[in-house]
Every structure is written in C-alpha cells, then in structure tokens.
C-alpha cells in the first residue's frame, strides 16, 4: 500500500500507491492529506502547478509524467503529485508511473543523505529524462512514415502521421507545463530558502525541462509542416484528377453534340451523300483533336 524510505537528517519519503489503497479516506485519516490535495491526486486532467499552504507550510507539486504504455495510438502524459511537509515527502503514484518510483528508489539507494528538496528536484529531473527515449523513437518513426508517404500516400500512412502529430502535441503541452512549474518555483519566495546543493539540483531540473521543451517543440513543428505539405499534395492531386475528368467530359460532350445533331429526323446537310458518315467522323475527330489540344494547353497554364 505504501513505501517508506529514510532520506537522512530525520526526513522521510513515503510513496502511496492509489491502486493498492483500499479506502481513499486513508489518505486523509492516516496521512493527514486534505481534501484539496486528494482531489489533485485523483484528477487525471490536472495541470502542472504548485500549491503553497501558508498555514502549515505544506507545498503540493503537480508534475506531468510520461505514460510509457500507449493507452491509445499515441503517447500521453498524466499528472503526478508530490507533497512536501516539514520533514516528509509524500508521492502519490499508480501503475502508470510506477517506473518513476523505481527510479527514485534507485537514486535514493545510490546517495547516503538527501534533503527533501534535493530528492524532489532530482526526481523531477528523472521524470524529464524519461521523455527522451520516447521522443527519439517518435522522431525515428516520423522519418519512417515520411519515407513511406513519399513512396505512396495512403490512408494508413496518413493516420500514422496524424497519431505522431497528436502524441507530440500532448507531450509538448506537458513539457511546457512542467517548465512553467519550475519557473514558478524559481520566482516564489520558497526558492530563497533552498541551500546551495538544492539550488544546483533545481538548476539541473530546469535545464532538462528547457531542453525537453525545445526538443518536443521542434519535432512538433516538423510534424505540422509534414502534415501541411502532404495535405497540399493531396489537394493538388485532387485538382489534377478533377481537371482530367473535366477534359474527358468536355471531349465526350462534343461527340454527343455532333452525333445528336445528325441523328434528328429532319432534312440535314449531307443527307443524300453516301459517304456522309465518313465526313462526319473525320470532322468530329478533327474537332476533338483541336479541342483536346486547346484544353490541354489551358490545363498546363493553370
């Protein structure tokens, strides 16, 4: 149900697994979490932010964590809650962010003594680093899909490009929210209470957050450009097809007019001419050729 580790200097890290809690009321009764914090932890759509309680000095951080498993056709991020009290750091996790808890545990085991904020900012850096392998994979998939689309523009490849673009939009938004959270911390009075080691770790987390935003934003722009380019190509192909069909329909209409004219049951020129059908066919063919050349020239100009 929970994991408890000693950080040193009398500080403790407690991780609460929501999937293993039998009653959500335990968060309030046993661990003293208020209703607002519990709502933050349960809200799937909560934005990354910091909430400072002046009354008791408790600080709640919501940080976007990457879901390594695709629930849909693309990757998404979801919020994870960190609660800092006087001598205690509480994380609220579930199966989707269990990998973060494992990495935090390994980091803690490799360091003897950590302050709460040193451990917190190291954890935020770990979360940011988890994005990079997935983003690199998406960048590679982008190149593969682009190559397939250059060979043949099919619905399957277009849907694959759309999924990549959608996933990158989510990751870009999550990365920007995380960066805004760290910038908020930097401008808050809380930042002035950090010691030198904590500030160094905060700077490392900030650098990773900025790099993540730059990387996701760049790939997102490339995907948008690719999507717009192939959209233009499809529109041009559609215009070419419509132009071809229009030319064919006009040429067929000429033959229909000529044959319809000489098919009327009234006296017409060449009625008594034995080779009239040959003259009419040659005239129709000549008119058809001239008109086709004219339409082709007009189509090329457009």
**Number of self-contained structural domains:** 2
Strand content: 5-15%
Helix content: 55-70%
Number of discrete helical segments: 7
Termini separation: 70 Å
Which class of secondary structure composition applies to the elements?
alpha+beta
Q: Which topology of the largest domain does CATH recognise?
A: Beta Polymerase, domain 2
In the CATH hierarchy, the architecture of the largest domain is 2-Layer Sandwich
Q: What spatial form do the alpha-carbon principal axes imply?
A: rod-shaped
Describe the structure.
The protein has 302 residues and is an alpha+beta fold. Helices cover 62% and strands 13% of the residues. The protein has a six-stranded mixed sheet, sandwiched between helices. The longest helix has 67 residues. The radius of gyration is 34 Å and the shape is rod-shaped.
Task: Give the tags.
Beta Polymerase, domain 2, 7 helices, CorA-like, membrane, about 300 residues, 6-stranded mixed sheet, CorA_cytoplasmic_dom, about 15% strand
Q: How is the topology of this model organized?
A:
Elements: E1 2-8, E2 11-17, H1 25-29, H2 35-42, E3 49-52, E4 59-66, E5 77-84, E6 88-93, H3 98-109, H4 116-151, H5 155-187, H6 196-262, H7 276-301
Helix pairs in contact: 3-4, 4-5, 4-6, 5-6, 6-7
Summarize the structure.
With 302 residues, this protein is of the alpha+beta class. The protein has helices at residues 25-29, 35-42, 98-109, 116-151, 155-187, 196-262, 276-301; strands at residues 2-8, 11-17, 49-52, 59-66, 77-84, 88-93. The chain has a 6-stranded mixed β-sheet, with helices on both faces.
């Amino acid at each position: 149900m929970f994991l408890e580790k000693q950080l040193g200097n009398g500080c403790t890290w407690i991780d609460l697994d929501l999937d293993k809690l039998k009653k959500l009321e335990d968060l309030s009764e046993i661990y003293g979490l208020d209703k607002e914090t519990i709502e933050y932890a349960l809200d799937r759509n909560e934005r990354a932010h910091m909430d400072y309680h002046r009354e008791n000095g408790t600080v709640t951080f919501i940080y976007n964590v990457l879901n390594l498993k695709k629930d849909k056709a693309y990757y998404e991020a979801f919020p994870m809650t960190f609660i800092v009290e006087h001598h205690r750091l509480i994380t609220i996790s579930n199966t989707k962010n269990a990998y973060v808890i494992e990495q935090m545990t390994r980091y803690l085991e490799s360091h003897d003594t950590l302050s709460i904020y040193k451990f917190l900012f190291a954890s935020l850096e770990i979360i940011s680093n988890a994005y990079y392998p997935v983003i690199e994979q998406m960048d590679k998939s982008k190149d593969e899909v682009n190559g397939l689309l250059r060979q043949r523009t099919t619905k399957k490849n277009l849907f694959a490009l759309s999924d990549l673009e959608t996933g990158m939009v989510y990751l870009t938004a999550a990365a920007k929210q995380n960066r805004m959270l760290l910038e908020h911390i930097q401008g808050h009075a809380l930042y002035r209470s950090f010691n030198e080691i904590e500030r160094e770790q905060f700077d490392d987390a900030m650098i990773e957050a900025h790099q993540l935003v730059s990387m996701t934003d760049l790939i997102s722009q490339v995907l948008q450009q690719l999507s717009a380019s192939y959209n233009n190509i499809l529109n041009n192909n559609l215009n070419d097809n419509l132009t071809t069909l229009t030319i064919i329909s006009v040429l067929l209409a000429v033959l229909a007019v000529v044959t319809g004219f000489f098919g009327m049951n009234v006296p017409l020129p060449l009625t008594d001419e034995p080779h009239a059908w040959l003259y009419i066919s040659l005239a129709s063919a000549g008119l058809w050729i001239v008109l086709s050349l004219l339409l082709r020239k007009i189509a090329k100009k457009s």
